[in-house]
Amino acid sequence: MATATPNLLQPPNFTCVKSLSESSALTSIPSTYTFTTDPNQLLAFEPQHSIPIIDFSLLTSGDPDQRSRAIQDLDQACLEWGFFMLINHGVPESLMTGMIEACRGFFDLTEEEKREFQGTHVLSPIRCGTSFNARVDQILFWRDFLKVFVHPQFHSPSKPAGFSEVCLEYTQRMRKVAGELLKGISKSLGLEEWYIDKTMNMDSGLQILTVTIHPYAMGMPPHSDHSFLTILIQNGIGGLQVQHKGQWFDVNPIPNSILVNTGDHLEVLSNGKYKSVLHRAVVNNKTTRISLALSNGPSLDTVVEPVPELSHPLKYVGMAYKEYLELQQGNKLDGKTCLDRVRIRTM
């Protein structure tokens, strides 16, 4: 059984990238922030419309034929891409915009104010910092982040004013969207629509909001997410790419759409039918990018393992979600290395 190693994630008195980028004394990027995307992998392929589009209103339709076709579309999106754009989702554009602006307000706080929410452990309910895991990263990533556990208990920074209220409304609305998507995925796997919800204890499921700010982004390496699904919105600044059949595709979202990608635990649950998708942030030297990722996973104590009906041959061993989180978040960001810990090797 793999064991999680580090608990502490940030060195004391971290310096935010945002503060560095706005400093009048900064004439060049510090040598510790030297990450760039591999030039041999920079090429991205079009057309963008190849990225699947799922109509949420059809997925939740009372018309059995419409819903059946939408579930088939969802199955193909998870099977072929592990990524899709969700339209007609019912979440007000004003709420999404308001949430982005509230997050911008958090990063505009002074370093002293943000340090109140620094956190020390991957399971700290509120944690902000820089890079990914500054204690083990050999190269620091030019980004600041805020991570907040918003379910089953709702947590929120007390600053700036109004952040907590808009965060609660936003995460509750997105949680309902995720729940409907998981119903559709259960059906697409040939299971009862409540299968994932019941067997994975989603009523007590861990929902984590991760807000990332990239001032003049220098990129992030390819990686997959934990959890079942990640729901993402951003402030209209490009830079996100997803890998599909070994090629990188630019993501240019339809206005007011929500981006969704499959995570490691959906790959485990489906015994490899649905793969977690590799994605990355690429260089952007024009302006600041803000992204809001909402991961939706099981309860911390739930052991995630392949569905029995899909487990022949068995490709993954089970692991408690809490242990997986500690393992992934406490080490370097590196592709799917954490998922490899639960993958069964065949000769």
TrEMBL record:
UniProt keyword list: Iron, Metal-binding, Oxidoreductase
InterPro entries registered for this protein in UniProt: DIOX_N (IPR026992), IPNS-like_FE2OG_OXY (IPR044861), IPNS-like_sf (IPR027443), Oxoglu/Fe-dep_dioxygenase_dom (IPR005123), Plant_2OG-oxidoreductases (IPR050295)
Keyword Metal-binding: yes
GO molecular function ontology, one term from the record: oxidoreductase activity
Domain Fe2OG dioxygenase: 204-298
Pfam families: 2OG-FeII_Oxy, DIOX_N
Coiled coil: none
PANTHER family cross-referenced by the UniProt entry: OXOGLUTARATE/IRON-DEPENDENT DIOXYGENASE (PTHR47991)
Family recorded in the similarity comment: Belongs to the iron/ascorbate-dependent oxidoreductase family.
Protein name: Fe2OG dioxygenase domain-containing protein
Originating organism: Vitis vinifera
